[in-house]
Amino acid sequence: MNCANGLTVEQLGVQYRMVKALSDISCSICPGRLTGIIGPNGAGKSTLIKAMLGLIPSSTGLITYDGQPLTAQLDRVAYVPQRSQIDWTYPATVWDVIMMGRIRKTGWFRRYSTVSRRAAAAALERVDMAKYRDRPIGQLSGGQQQRVFLAKAISEEADVFCLDEPLAGIDKKTEAIVFNILQELAADGHTVLVVHHDLGQAITNFDDLILLNRELIASGTRKEVLTGSNLQRAFGGQVNFFAG
Questions:
Q1: Buried (b) or exposed (e) across 196-213, using 16+ Cβ within 10 A?
Q2: Which residue spans traverse the membrane (predicted)?
Q3: 10 Å Cβ neighbour count for 104?
Q4: How far apart are CA 220 and CA 125, in angstroms?
Q5: Which structural domain, as residue segments, surrounds residue 76?
Q6: CA 128 and chain centroid, separation
Q7: Would residue 178 count as lying in a domain?
Q8: Closest residue by Cα to residue 123 from 93, 145, 92, 101
Q9: 111 — phi, psi (to 5°)?
């Protein structure tokens, strides 16, 4: 799949010492569509997003957005890491976390503008977390924490949204909120890329999929990717999934 003004991955490879984590990955992520990265444990799903953003080194490949190297325009990207990578004991309130999303717009050591405060407040309202704005982040449930970090990403007013397993271990209410917002962001023309951890009914919320197992198995629409042969190559054995 090729698309204008989108994210393009060309022959991306990632190697840890002598082990190939990803090999020769080439695919496109189109704006206006919600794209999921799926595959078995250890397939390189999170590695793909991190390598695209320059968070880990790649051994080969080129990542471009709108025709230019992505790492040269990271101010256009909002990234939400896995919850396990966040220090939930850090003494910050919900409002503190949201306002961190406005630092790039404001600049370090400068006072937040009225515009930034309004953007942060609107993001909190959008994820239904405004009433928790003064709550320490560590006192929230997993689903609430995920909504806060989604609100932080929204407050950044980015063009590209990359989320690493935002649906892992969350409640159904939060899952619905997250998917609704991601679909709205895509409908508004943003590029939205999500690492997803299972093949249950939630898979039907994605427009496009990237199926990995250290190499690219398939990319395209759900119908194109979720074939028996592709799933067999990726997962092996009997695979149960919700085709939708």
A1: bbebeebbebbebbbbbb
A2: none
A3: 15
A4: 33
A5: 7-235
A6: 20
A7: yes
A8: 101
A9: -70, 140
Tokens of 106: 């404001």
7 closest CA partner among 40, 43, 44, 51:
51
Assess if residue 1 is contained within a domain.
Answer: no
CB count in 10 Å sphere of residue 215: 16
Reading the chain (244 residues) residue by residue, the pLDDT tens digits are: 667 678 999 999 999 888 899 999 999 999 999 999 999 999 999 999 999 999 999 999 999 999 899 999 999 999 999 988 888 888 899 999 999 888 776 655 567 778 888 999 999 999 999 999 999 999 999 999 999 999 999 999 999 999 999 988 888 888 999 999 999 999 999 999 999 987 787 899 999 999 999 999 999 999 999 999 999 999 986 566 555 5
Domain count within the chain = 1
Cβ atoms of residues 138 and 110 within 8 Å: no
Does an H or E element contain 21, and which? Answer: strand 19-29
Neighbours of 188 (CB within 10 A): 10
The CATH code of the domain that includes 87 is 3.40.50.300
CA-to-CA separations, 52 to 5, 146, 241, in angstroms, rounded: 16, 22, 28
CB atoms within 10 A of CB 69: 12
Q: Which residues pair with 19 in a beta bridge?
A: 16
Inside any domain, residue 241: no
> Is residue 243 included in any domain, yes or no?
no
